[in-house]
Amino acid sequence: MATQTRRYHHGDLRAALLTRAEETLRERGPAALSLRELARDLGVSHAAPSRHFKDKQALLDALALTGFGRLAASMTASQEPAGETFAERLAAMSRAYVDFATANAELLDLMYSIKHDPKASEALVAASHQWSEQLVELIGTGQRRGEVREGPLERVGLPIFATLHGYASLAVSGMLPAEAVEHGLADVIAHMLRGCAPERSANPLVP
After folding, report:
1. CA-to-CA distance for 207 and 189, rounded, in angstroms?
2. In 3D, which of 164, 40, 143, 174 has the Cα closest to residue 91?
3. By CB distance 3.0 to 4.6 Å, which of 43, 53, 131, 134 could disulfide with 58?
4. How many CB atoms lie within 10 A of CB 155?
């Protein structure tokens, strides 16, 4: 244990605290988080965590910040193997979001609750916008390619986010049977794509 303690004091205690905090969050929820208990779990002094987090709220903020960073990274990674069309790229991004949400339900809930806290840091607010900015950029590209209906990017994007986040919430809550989650997402993606499709002219002589 002494060797472990020395290692944490040499620079990786912050990462260890965040890892253990996320495990506790997943197992018992945010109310169970305690810097003193985390220190005991990691075999360091009770005062050691205060070198990285002044209080529990600072720890929660850091968890949310890293969570948004991981979510944005997942969104970015989803685009690498995706095709070129808006439909293919939106489908890949949607699956990545639902995968993240179902694998990190407690963390995602914390991320959004901390984001809306009036005391949220500028860094956290900026990080919380990363993945939505990726969605907006995807919509803009789709509009330029003629694959997405015209309109303000945020207004086109809001129904997509609301639908996707709502579906993820249903999946996480267990309200959907496990066997329905996959084909249900395919139906949700198809629904979003119909909502994004360019509007057809009412004049039959106009293509």
Report:
1. 26
2. 164
3. 53
4. 9
